[in-house]
Amino acid sequence: MKLWQKIYLVLIVLFLITFNIVGFAIIQKNYNESIDKEIQNSLKQHDSIAYAIDMNFNLFNDYAYVIDYIKKETIKNDIKIEFLTKDNDILFSNLGFDISSQREELKSLTLYKKNYILRRVEEREYIFVSSLINVNDKNFKFSYVKNIDYIYNEKNDDYNFLLKFEIYILLIFAIIIYFISRKITSPIDSIIESTQNISSGNYDKRLDIKSLDELGILSSNFNVMADKIEEKILELQNINDEKQRFIDNLTHEIKTPLTSIIGYSNLLLTTKVDEKIQYESLKYINSEGKRLQELSSKMMNLICLNADNFEMKNENIMEILKYIKESFRIKLNEKNINLIINGKDCNLYIEKDLMTIMISNLVDNAIKASCNNSNIYLNSYKENLNTIIELRDTGIGISKEHIDKIIEPFYMVDKSRSRKNNGAGIGLSICKKIADIHNADIEIESEINKGTTIRVIFK
């Protein structure tokens, strides 16, 4: 059963219970007041008739005359009375119906004390008011009887009216409550629809519930949750796409040199070749082997960077830069490139080995991109409370459409040049991961045939 249906039924049941309790209470109250009023009137009427009987006995002292007087008065005034002896023998009665001899109101009667009882006789309702009256030193039992069917009829009429009125009111109330319950729960239907859309993969669905109640707050929180879910889903999709590209590129990078190595080695094993071809084949096998060696080294670096237990220390940047220059001396000399280091001594809270790997990758890329007899500039300085390590070369540069992608694993702007230099397109990915570990940003500026500038900004 839906929530709006539960609300609808609960309100209908509450309405019926409340309406009937109030209706029955009012009818019963009116009935009790009418009965009390009729009892008081009957008591007064009883006193009035008893007084008249007593007066007539005192005046005429004739039972026959008094009885005759009572008959005339009862006919004239349409009243019902009963006049009995002390032993319940009937002297006069115009009740017109038989009544049980077991009459509680006639028991224990005393002078000047009236008993009354409500009694149903032959499907009709009566009030019986009885008392003892003394006439000439004799006690008689006198009862005044009044029909009060009209009170019960009014009560039944009130119940019938209540039932009919309840049906009309219930119809109107049911229609109103139907729309109110649907209106109240309509935001919940929107929330259910949105959750179903999200569960089916439609993550851009949002709620438009503008209210200050709990449903409005729930709607707002739901939208925030949906934003977070969509953000995480997109992030996971991007990560999955990156992983897939990584696997595809890694497979390609491994497959290509292996194919060449296997092909040239089969050639040497199955065919007699001259020394020149043999030398070229072995040279190519050696080159592809070195590429695989560098690829495995880079892959190990990437794997190690997924750890989160690096110990940061306060290190001197200039000492790291000078160490890197010395480690690249042979490569620099091969192309007659001059690595110029500038900047003042400054310390950073870093992991020294990771920082060495990052800057070494940047220098290695700069060497590969630079022409012979050129300069590479490696600087460290402070700017706006940030420490910046800047590497600038005057090499071939990178076009703008490639700048945002070169930090992706295995992405290479010029595959032929990268292959020639035993590159695998992983260096800048490693640099980005190391920068992230140190909460640093990497900025890249480049222009074709004018060079590239890379800044690592430590905040």
From TrEMBL:
Subcellular location: Cell membrane
Ranges in coiled-coil conformation: none
Catalytic activity reported: ATP + protein L-histidine = ADP + protein N-phospho-L-histidine
Domain of life, per lineage: Bacteria
Enzyme class: transferase
UniProt-recorded name of the protein: histidine kinase
Domain Histidine kinase: 249-459
Membrane topology: Multi-pass membrane protein
Pfam families: HAMP, HATPase_c, HisKA
Alphabetized CDD domains for the sequence: HAMP (cd06225), HisKA (cd00082)
Spans traversing the lipid bilayer: 6-27, 161-180
One Gene Ontology molecular-function label: kinase activity
Major localization listed first in the record, in broad terms: membrane
EC number per UniProt: 2.7.13.3
Matching InterPro entries: HAMP_dom (IPR003660), HATPase_C_sf (IPR036890), HATPase_dom (IPR003594), His_kinase_dom (IPR005467), HisK_dim/P_dom (IPR003661), HisK_dim/P_sf (IPR036097), HssS/ArlS-like (IPR050398), Sig_transdc_His_kin-like_C (IPR004358)
UniProt cross-references to Gene3D superfamilies, sorted A to Z: 1.10.287.130, 6.10.340.10, Histidine kinase-like ATPase, C-terminal domain (3.30.565.10)
Residue span(s) of domain HAMP: 182-234
Keyword field: ATP-binding, Cell membrane, Kinase, Membrane, Nucleotide-binding, Phosphoprotein, Transferase, Transmembrane, Transmembrane helix, Two-component regulatory system
